[in-house]
Write a structure and sequence with these properties.
single chain; 50 residues; mainly alpha
Length: 50
Amino acid sequence: MQNTHLSALSAKHNVLDQRIAAETQRPLPDQAILAALKKQKLRIKEQMAR
């Protein structure tokens, strides 16, 4: 159960990484979107550390 949960969190973390990378590649990245994505990524990273 815990391993499955960790795998799901890791997958979400990777998706957020890709979304952040895509947003930063845009000509005018939206800073509000980037901040929200980074906060979500940090929350997931904290959950993975527990």
